[in-house]
Amino acid sequence: MKLQHEFMKDVVAGVGLATTPNGLSSIEHPGCAAAIWQRQPLKTFQDWIDSLEKEVLPRARIILRPEVVRAAMTDLFEGSRLPECNERSMLVDDIAAMANILASVMQVPYLRLRLDVISTNACRKFHVDAVTARLICTYRGSGTQYGISMNGEEPRRICSVSTGSPMILRGTLWPEAPRSGLLHRSPPIEGTEETRLVLVLDPISDIDGGLDQQLIH
């Protein structure tokens, strides 16, 4: 079956490993707490983004429709100190692709997009996000760590998502019980001089209730 080639179980219960972007839709399968698209970044792209000074890495916190993500990222990068090159265009294209994937899986009209530049122990405690689902992709630096928690304790086995591999995780608002116990965190990097560039996308069904972030239609 085609699905068997796109999606297989990880050694951590409830985590699926996808070999194509379509495999990320397996997050909808019963008992699947997270899905990871295992992919290898192009060496030219990884060398480029790893060589950038952290001051030029792009940052963003906006809510927008999936179809305008490409234009929004293009405008953001043109207004930043990020040098114009083929690799920059690749980053724009990939962020837009991630947005389309999550919007398609979750069937939502809006996304909350964050580009975070991290050089400290941000979110160092294992946790579950207070969202329906979340897509995380680390373009530079160490990837997200995850593991199964027993009785609320820190996971005994800790796994790491590869750099460049997107992960969709279920949050506390996902309508399924019992929960898998899968927790995740940002890798502890304080004091290592490592700088991470992380994309975070959250699905948003509506935008009522007031927003303290920029909204792009």
From TrEMBL:
Pfam families: DUF1826. InterPro entries: DUF1826 (IPR014955). It comes from the Bacteria. This is DUF1826 domain-containing protein. It comes from Roseibium algae.
